[in-house]
Design goal:
Length: 305
Amino acid sequence: MRILVTGASGLLGLNLGLLMHPTHEIIGVDRSKLGNVPFQLVKMDLLGNGAIEAILDESHPEAVIHCAALADLDACELDPEAARRLNGKLPGELAGSCAMRGIKMIHISTDAVFDGTKDGVYTEEDTPNPLGVYARTKLEGEEAVMAADRGALVARVNFFGWSLSGTRSLSEYFVNRLTAGIRCNGFNDVWFCPLFVGDLVGILVRMLEQGLSGLYHLVGSQALTKFDFGVQIARQFGFDESLIQPISIAASGLKAKRSNNLRLSVHKLSTDLGIEIPTVSTGIEKFYTQAQQGYPQKMRGYQQE
């Protein structure tokens, strides 16, 4: 399958390109951060006039996986208009252009669209109530995509893995701090369902191949606190887990509001694909194996100076 991936230098976009290029024709779209990648790369700013139409008409993809976003929560609070343009409006414009050309699209959204007040697990039927600019604009993006293309896929995700900079995921935060023997914090009152990015990539492509459409929760099948996630990372890598301090999110001093319950049900996805969704424990094992194989260092080599 010929797949166009936006945000190709991001954690998901780059892993998607690297893991899928041996079996699929990947065209990555990136503004300036990547070089020497083993898949086709197009340097383009999707916010430019006519950029979407140009890239689709030149590359003729069978599918688009839209990963590009302004994902820094505090940056979104500081510049809500930039967040709205990239997270809210661009996805709808891309979906409309894909629909006109008969191109299947997956839009990557976030579990953060929920406020965390539900006593239990969120399903796709629950009404979102985003707390901050990032979450609000991501929800706007979901709505814009579905309005422009009823055949599109919207996947709400939460994932971890190795990134281009080595600093993009929560898993890297714990590895970086613990490797250096530095104390770090882990929220003991924030529950989430992280999925290893390699597992996420495989499921996204499977969703395309099976022709799914509509809204899906695409997270791990196991819920845990961010503190417990850090402890599991420490144990897998053989780090000193006592360096991880359990704290409340209220004591963190973070600017952007965050939900403390991001337990999402994957029942719909598991049923429609006919598969078991992986747990965080098996994902952390794969994350560790990649570290042992030098995958993080390999990724750094694709960073354009």
